[in-house]
Automatic annotation (TrEMBL):
It comes from Streptomyces candidus. This is Putative O-methyltransferase YrrM. Residues 1-20 are annotated as: Disordered. Keywords: Methyltransferase, Transferase. One of its GO terms (cellular component) is plasma membrane. GO terms for biological process: DIM/DIP cell wall layer assembly; methylation. The keyword Transferase applies. GO terms for molecular function: methyltransferase activity. InterPro entries: SAM-dependent_MTases_sf.
């Protein structure tokens, strides 16, 4: 007797993570910056989810040349919200001349100091995403002290010292709305893989009881606000 195949019961569709527009992904891949593609896609998925659910602005600390900003801008465009990005554009400690992550093309030839703002503006303009981004040029704590709007997502990727990473957490995390997302980059549990300040901020956010882990993609951690405080 021929085998009778079992009726196939319908499987729930695997939820597809939201993905950026192909043109944005191409712009991201060719932009100067530090975020690998897998982390970028996870950042985009978080931004798209938060923007869609909460319809609140998305905020990034650490613009650099706009690589990750492109993804937040694409998610903001899709949901009709604004992506805000904060940077003094003078580079972090490890990006200064003589340090591991220095890029000589980011130095203003007239002043002899780093200025990533022109490259950032070109990156955003070429991707056609300028109108979805509000760029704040200045120090993160100064900007945060003037801020008064709830945020759908806060992405911390600014200075990687304890002082800066903790400052960014303390100043910006209170603005994450209930159900909103806190994303931390460069979280390395093993000191051999990288600096520990973002990891300590991540542990602090979890220990606060205000945030619950949603996803881990390499060094990118996505947490959701599930309680008050920080
Ligand atoms: C790691 S880079 C950001 C990388 C970027 N998100 C990307 O994907 O390419 C860190 C940035 O934070 C900025 N930064 C560091 N400390 C800051 C502070 N206190 N206020 C504003 N920006 C700061 C630096 O100028 C630098 O551009």
């Amino acid at each position: 007797m021929p085998a009778v195949s079992e009726p196939v019961s319908p499987q729930p569709a695997t939820p597809q993570a939201a993905a950026p527009q192909p043109a944005t992904l191409a712009a991201f891949e060719s932009a100067k910056g530090f975020m690998p593609a897998a982390e970028g896609l996870a950042l985009y998925a978080a931004a798209a989810e938060a923007a869609d659910a909460l319809r609140l602005p998305l905020l990034e600390v650490g613009t650099y040349c706009g690589r990750s900003t492109l993804l937040l801008a694409d998610a903001a465009r899709a949901a009709g919200v604004t992506a805000v990005t904060v940077d003094h554009h003078r580079g972090s400690e490890e990006q200064q001349p003589g340090w591991e992550y220095h890029d000589a093309t980011t130095v203003d030839p007239e002043l002899g100091v780093m200025d990533t703002l022109p490259t950032f503006r070109r990156t955003l303009h070429r991707a056609g995403l300028e109108e979805h981004v509000l760029a704040l040029v200045g120090r993160s704590p100064q900007a945060a002290r003037l801020w008064g709007t709830p945020l759908g997502l806060v992405f911390i990727d600014g200075g990687h010292t304890d002082e800066h990473a903790n400052g960014d957490y303390e100043e910006w995390a209170p603005h994450v709305a209930r159900g909103g997302l806190l994303v931390v980059h460069d979280v390395f549990p093993d000191p051999a893989d990288g600096g520990q300040a973002p990891y300590r901020v991540y542990l602090r956010a979890l220990a606060s009881g205000a945030f619950t882990e949603v996803s881990v993609t390499d060094s990118l951690r996505v947490l959701r606000r599930t309680g008050p405080g920080i």
